[in-house]
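Dear Dr. H.,

I hope your travels went smoothly. While you were away I took the liberty of generating a structure for the chain from your last submission, since the lab meeting agenda had it listed for discussion. I wanted you to have the full record in hand beforehand rather than looking at slides cold. The sequence, exactly as received, is reproduced here:
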Amino acid sequence: MSSPSSSKFEDAGVATTAAPSLASEDDAADLAKLGYKQELRRNFTMLEVFGIAFSIMGLLPSIASVLAYSIPAGPVGMADLASAMPTSDAFSLMFLSVIVIARDGKWAPTDGHVYGVFLAAILCHAVLSSVMSRIMGKLQTVFVFMNFVLIAATIIALPIGARNRRHSAKYIFTQTENLTSWPTGWTFMLSWLSPIWTIGAFDSCVHMSEEARNASKAVPVGIVASSASCWLFGFILMIVIAATINPDLESVTRSQFGQPMAQIYYDALGKHATMGLMSLLFIVQFLMGISILVAASRQAWAFSRDGALPFSSFFRHISKRFGVIPLRAVWGCAFLAAILGLLTLIAPAAAQAVFSLVVAANNLAWGIPILWGRQKFKPGPFYTGDRFSVPIAWTALLFLAFGILLSMFPVGGPNPTRKSFPSSHK
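The corresponding predicted structure, in token form, is as follows:
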């Protein structure tokens, strides 16, 4: 027997029930209240929703990718990363750094090498995201485990390797540097680009909401749990890195291996251990890419369903053969990534300019519903309450505005050149 609310949505042409193989009646009804019918299979548990966010944040690989933003401000600037929720896709750079280390810095990859590895990775991600969709939720547990293996290995190995030159607490928490042509104070502020650049992954839980069981609880819990986990372990990791880094920070940022993290490992552990840890790092980063493509394709499909993208009628198609997934959206996102990757063949500054606009646009997109959507907001099962939700909302808006402002500045100084931009690729 249908409830009054169910009848209302049925009259409006929106199905309030779904095939048992897709979703429970409660989940389908919740989606119907928003005006949509259930089209994807809900096979992600709460733990797996947490897993995809934590996997995309990819704590240590993402820290490694954005260290070049924080190191110029010294250890105290690096501490900003402790609150980061990172995600990035610098797989090709990490992969190639292992080859450079193996050749003792006597070989340097060209932009063509970087793009070639990137393109191969994108193709692998698209194939795996297509054929492994039925177990993608289960794979997130594996991805999380691999992240923790890398984190534990780093936390244990670096202090042991650098036991004869570990820095004091005063150095870690108060030492400042300035490797840019900006004033020291502003260099410290720009070091916040690291967490701002990487913070976007927390919303990946939302992208998977139509494939999550009991989404009204699983999604917010996934956001909070993954963010809190990355804050805690990120704090520990950054203390370890700051305690063991070479005090000659310029030698780290200008490493012959092309990546500051590779140089930090090398200085503390030597060649062979560095190759092992960097190999584990790029494997984890590869797994990040799979999760990123899965989440991005669901967002693209949702926009296409509303007719908000070019060729929406084409991309909104659901493939039942490959496990009830938006297969065309998966490959469309992969193709777009391959096109954007061509910017690496122009100059790092070109890619950095585009990605800075992405950060600003993302922050703006989050800020608009917070600022103007409150009058339509209806609390769900997860709610911080009237007392806390408003201060949290204003704090979020201030931080988003701060991020938009910082993303407009070149990190090297007021007169940017090709070398003004760290080689960090999303």
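Two observations you may find useful: The first helix runs from residue 4 to 11. The two ends are 50 Å apart (CA to CA).

With kind regards,
E. W.
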